[in-house]
Write a structure and sequence with these properties.
With 139 residues, the chain is mostly helical. The protein is 80% helix and 0% strand. It has a single domain, classed as Ferritin, core subunit, four-helix bundle (Ferritin). Helix 3 runs antiparallel to helix 4. Bound molecules: fe (ii) ion (2 copies).
């Protein structure tokens, strides 16, 4: 079965999925002005996708025989919409880096299902990254 190292990586992934679920949902609440009005529903939609990622990874980790963490990584909401988007772009870049590492590690351990799960999640994270980059354009 999965190594302790891989399980630890999955728990860090859960912590950061919970972090961004809260981060984007609170930005959705707090985004101000006409641009904030436009950004708000997008932030909400992505927040919900991140919570589903947390659930999927937690289910997998539980199957692999470890307890999923309940503690999110540090939430960084920001103030202006520009600052919010910069924090979000950085968060997605971190996810892309981490999930590539998890895919590589799962591959090494012949854990095909974990690899596939993170390949699918990585597709979403690259879309989020692209969405946030586009939203920040011209700010
Ligand atoms: Fe995610
Ligand atoms: Fe994401």
């Amino acid at each position: 079965m999965a190594s302790d190292e891989l399980k630890e990586m999955l728990n860090r992934a859960i912590a950061r999925e919970m972090q961004v679920a809260i981060q984007y949902m609170w930005q959705h609440i707090e985004a101000q002005g006409i641009l904030g009005e436009a950004a708000s529903p997008i932030l909400r939609q992505i927040a919900l996708q991140e919570m589903l990622h947390a659930e999927q990874i937690a289910e997998r980790l539980s199957y692999l025989g470890a307890r999923p963490t309940t503690k999110p990584a540090e939430v960084k909401v920001g103030s202006s919409l520009k600052e919010m988007l910069e924090l979000d772009i950085a968060a997605e870049e971190e996810a892309i880096r981490m999930y590539r590492e998890i895919i590589k590690k799962a591959e090494e351990e012949f854990d095909v299902v974990t690899r596939k799960l993170f390949e699918n999640i990585l597709i979403d994270e690259e879309k989020h990254h692209d969405t946030f980059l586009r939203m920040r354009e011209g700010m």
